[in-house]
Amino acid sequence: MPEDTKANPSTPPTPEKPAEPAAGTPAAPAKPAAAAPAKPAATAPAQAAKPATPAKPAGPVPEPWTGPLPEGLKSRFGSAIKEASTYLGQNYLLVERAYAVEVLQILRDEERFDYCVDLTAVHYPKKELQFEIIWILYSFSRNQRMRVKTQLQEGEAAPSVVALWPAANWLERECYDMFGIAFEGHPDLRRILLPDGWKGFPLRKDYSILQQDKEWVQANLGIESGQ
Fold first, then answer.
1. Which mean pLDDT values do the consecutive 10-residue runs of the chain (227 residues) have?
2. Model-level pTM?
3. Could you give all domains of the chain from N- to C-terminal order, each with its CATH number?
């Protein structure tokens, strides 16, 4: 057998090419690529409805104080007893300044309010009567407290009660020191907490919490004010 016709088992067969389509025959359409799945649109988290602000509860209000004590004083002093009320269980009288000492003496001598617990003031700078003086009294025999108030204009003196309760001496001096309220009839009215030359009255509403008497600090301490 001739050598060119002898099969060579070590040579791999040549792969046949795919038959080309005949001229005029349309090509098969290309397979479209698979479309990527659409991502769901992001949705904002639903916001819970804001609860309505609850109505502010009504605060306590003074109620009329009735009984033998306030009614007896009203019958004796008439309109000079401007108010007799109770607030959160605390009884109080609002008395005209001119009658305050007389009412207080009756409370001490006849109603046995023999202890003056405290004496203080409140400043209302926008009111015509800017200051209230408040005496807090206690009766040992009654085991009862009450307050007596009177109102003052700027520059008006309050009546001193040192003759009724000697312990009111230092209380009135403190009130003078912090509010600038003079007490008519006080035996030795001068500052008790601050130096004599200090300017201003720290418990008045128009006295800034950062305010200091810078001149006094410089003159007496030799330093600049820390405020």
1. 49 56 56 62 69 87 96 97 96 98 98 97 96 98 96 96 97 97 97 89 84 66 64
2. 0.71
3. 63-193 (3.30.460.80), 197-227 (no CATH)
